[in-house]
Amino acid sequence: MFRRIFIRALAAGLLSASAAPVFASAFDFVPAPQTDLNRVYRIDKVTGAVSSCQYGLKEGTVGITLCFGPGEGAKAQDPGDYGLIASRHEREGGVFRVNYRTGEMSVCYVFEEQVVCTPPETVTATVAEGEGDTPQVTGSTSD
Q1: Which of 86, 98, 110, 137 could form a cystine bridge with 33, CB 3.0-4.6 A?
Q2: Residue 7 lies in a domain
Q3: In this structure, is residue 45 part of a structural domain?
């Protein structure tokens, strides 16, 4: 009897654990840190594609939602575990796209009606000999 209950409980636990990824969210949302800007950024957590929407005024209506699709650097990247982080700079309209698997970061912002992102970069803890306490920068835009 105890064995049958244990097996059923184990099976139920395995089924619920395997179903968990199905219910995981595909997107993450972060507001722009700029205090006078009503803008929210959205990221696809697997592909890293970034888009943005904000509230806009339109005469005779309650307003409109203005959305900006991914442009240069903001389109799908290599599959990863992406997220958005807003700085605490109250005049900053952009956000950081981070890849939690690789440690790479990009800065994303709205430019000419599209979201654009800088090339992904990462910083190592290795300090190059003779450069004092300056971290070594690596990534696609380094020399």
Answers
A1: 86
A2: no
A3: yes
Token duo for residue 4: 């049958």
Task: Find the domain containing 114 and state its range.
Answer: 25-139
CA distance 46 to 102: 13
**Residue range 41-83, pLDDT digits in tens:** 999 999 999 999 999 999 999 999 999 999 999 999 999 999 9
pTM equals 0.71
Asked if residues 28 and 84 have their Cβ atoms less than 8 Å apart, the reply is yes
Q: In sequence order, what are the residues at sequence separation of 6 or more whose Cβ sits closer than 8 angstroms to the Cβ of residue 53?
A: 39, 40, 42, 65, 66, 67, 68
Q: Tell me the three state secondary structure of residue 23.
A: helix
Confidence at residue 81, expressed as pLDDT on a 0 to 100 scale: 97
